[in-house]
Specification:
Layout lengths: L8 E8 L2 E8 L9 E4 L4 E4 L1 E4 L4 E7 L2 E7 L2 H4 L8 E4 L2 E5 L6 E6 L11 H4 L8 E4 L4
Antiparallel strand pairs: 1-2, 2-5, 3-4, 6-7, 8-11, 9-10
């Protein structure tokens, strides 16, 4: 199992109740008494904090056969203060669903190529830092 460290997070941009949302998942938060559990018949993934970011501004523009997601998230909410020239590890991706938006059909990530499981919420909720890539922040 990959080692997930304090500070590792997932930011999910999606639609909830018809509105675009940003949801922050913090996997390791010291002092968490009762983590959120994502369970399946195969396993359970525990995440210390799951919170909708009210300060985030997310817009999704749809057109036939395509969509564009625009988001403005205060980096302080993520606990991320990028420094130019510094290298960070992480990943980003997209989950495609069926036409009704009910069933995941495809997960695609920039770095992680182990994305074949699309029907097990607990496994999909896991982070695998071994599969992350490196990126560098340039400029301000």
């Amino acid at each position: 199992k990959p080692e997930v460290l304090e500070g590792d997070l997932r930011l999910l941009l999606s639609v909830f109740d018809g509105q675009p949302v940003a949801v922050l998942y913090r996997y390791k938060v010291p002092g968490t008494a009762k983590p959120e559990e994502f369970a399946s018949p195969v396993t359970t993934t525990k995440i210390d904090m799951v919170k909708q970011l009210e300060s985030a501004r997310v817009a999704i523009d749809r057109e036939p056969g395509a969509y564009t997601v625009r988001a403005a998230i205060p980096l302080a909410e993520l606990g991320f203060a990028p420094a130019p020239g510094k290298t960070y590890r992480g990943d980003f991706g997209v989950i495609h669903s069926d036409a009704l938006g009910k069933t995941n059909e495809l997960r695609m990530y920039w770095a992680n190529q182990s994305t074949g499981i699309v029907s097990d919420l607990a496994i999909e909720a896991q982070l695998d830092p071994r599969q992350w890539g490196a990126f560098e922040v340039k400029g301000q």
